[in-house]
Write a structure and sequence with these properties.
By secondary structure, the protein is an alpha+beta fold. It has 14 helices and 41 strands.
Length: 780
Amino acid sequence: MAVATKQRLETRIGKVLSHQKARGGFSTALAYEPDDEAEKAHGSLYFVIDIGSPSPLTADIAYNLIDIIKEEYYSDLELTAGESFENALKAANDELSAIAKQGEKDWIGKFNAVIAAVRGNEIHIVQRGTAEMHLLRNTTITNLSKGMYAPGETYRPEETLISLIEGEIEVSDKVVLSTSELFYYVSLEKLKRLIDNHTPAAAAKKLANLLEQEQEINHTSVLISEFSLPELLAQEEETEPTENWVGTPTEMPVKRAGLFSAAAPVIDKEQTVEEALEIKEEPESIMPEESVVTAEEPRAQREELVIEEESDEEPAETYKVRLPQIKLGRPSFDGFKGGINLAGDYASKLKVNPKTLGRAGQITIQLAKVAGAAGLVVLDWFVKTITTGVKMIKRHPRGNQILIGIIALLAVVIVVSTIGLSRGGVSRVGAKSAVVSLAEAQQKRDAAQAALIYEDSVKARTLLAEAYAAAQAASSNRKTQEQATALLGELEKQLDTVSNVKRYNDIQPLADFNVLTSQLNTGGSETAKQVKVGPISVLGGNVYALDPDNNKVYKFKATSGDVAIVNSLVSTDKKLKLVSMASETELIFYTTPPNIYGLNLDNNSMTGKALDAGNWSNADQIIAYTNKLYFLDIANNQVWKYQIVPEGYTKVAPYFETNTGMNFAGALDFAIDGSVYLLMPGNVVKKYTGGAEAQFSLANIPSPYPGLGNVTQIYVDIDTKLYVLDVTNGRVVVFDKEGAYLAQYVYGNGVSNPTNLFVDEPNGFIYLTAGTALYRLPMK
């Protein structure tokens, strides 16, 4: 097929198209060159379009896009090719925007295309998605679309076709437009050798033969174009068919009229894509005529077929469908003696009567008998040979052992061969499954981006999770491992965004209280003292840490970044155990044996507080909330509370009026925000409101993130968000007061075995301690 792009250059093409074996999209490739001389001088259009949407309207979208670009490009022949191409793309973007506004949005994020306009020596290209365009020039192949596709890119429908490049075509250049699926099966080097050593049609045929051996071809469309001088092309005759199909034919999708625009034409399901491009709307209404097109007719000779659409309410609209002459290349069967084509020539001259058929049947039977006899002779020879061999072996003194050894060896060979074949089959199937999984992951990734455009974060998160699972499956196969691994990294970032996940890299301690060790050992004690960091509290950005072993209170000064010993409990019979913030100027400390001390931060003085011990004598946790002090008493299955009054504190009162059936055994932590939260073994959080247990549980963390591991601490802020410290997975996970997942902060291996958690939400920081080190994680 030769079409002129300029007087001194001609083009010939070859195409590979795939029958749609699986639902879930539509792809096509075509080259369009007008018949009108004025339009022909304006250039040719080349398309490869792949839409990975299962919508039944996918083919309509592709065909309408082609029609609009073609119509707009040739609408004003006074413009340059670049101006016409830009106008055509703007019209196409407007159409896609209109389609989206009408509710058909599933194609967004799944649209892959390369479209080119060639006029004379100049070429203009637009690319979107994963479709690719390669140029072979002087034995060097270059990816012209490289860098134009950003994985995970988001775009609005009206900005679908905007990435433009332009250049010049040279004599003997070959250009390949293709969908990305091609390179799952064919390397770039192999593609280069094919198109470099063959004409476009011959290369397309060989490419189709290679792809036919695969089993999962669904969206492979390839267009190969060669640009050269007419006299050079004439030296090498094109004998192969231009169009080559891969896969089993299925019913072609029907293009619907009036779906997206008032003037959308009708395409019969038997038409080729080239025929679809030639549809013209005519005002007249006539009955359909038969169209007879033969392979010998020149390209310019065409018949017109008129199709009438019937309607019950209005007169039928009439469209004329112009059927172009399609030159079908004759398949070559040179490997057969005499040739199938030669046999076809004799077939019309051969006269067969019943007697002839009878004699042919008798000959066939005789041949079958001869073949059977020959088979028996071969079998008899084989049996005799084996029998003779066995007899000879048995004559040997150790004949039986030798026979057993031979049989065992044959058994091993058979088993090994079977396993090898089985593994080969599994490997082949595994590779194909991996390719399919990778394509699925990419498609779902792009669909998720489309969902984000319309602010559907729930759908986007679901699609990204499914894409992540598919990419993980693809990463297990060597053939797709590199691409899948890169995709997993990309998907993780996108999942983190939609799932409110913040990750910290290269975390360094904010401070280390261990530098205070020397100050602990100034009294001349024979036993060296070691810093130990217990519970912490944060006031005004300053961090106060309790050292229960040394009865010290340490302070990290936010302004200077220094650490210091700010106070001590001078007592030989009491040990500091717990700390809580009582107000903006006071910290409350609990000691063992039970006692309460207050540290006034204004004057740095620590004084004892008189409390009614009541009938309790133990506190495992302490929290100051509003004007009350709460003590968790695990041994007595109770939470005790004191109310602060001007004179000090009221008498102790139980939070639970009756604790019948309460069992706090093993409780790890508690938190208060008006309700009381208890962290129990097994990551169970119990919630009590007004002294009664409320229905509460932590929701599952969204896939693909791991579920909760070992939770050791909880924290509730003033906005009633619940923070849990998951030391197994190196993170702090956030839930709302109903237990729904909100976010997570992943510190990973940056903090080893943290023991204390404090959240300063007003200032946007999470504080953790590990050993003697203090860490601060910014929440924004």
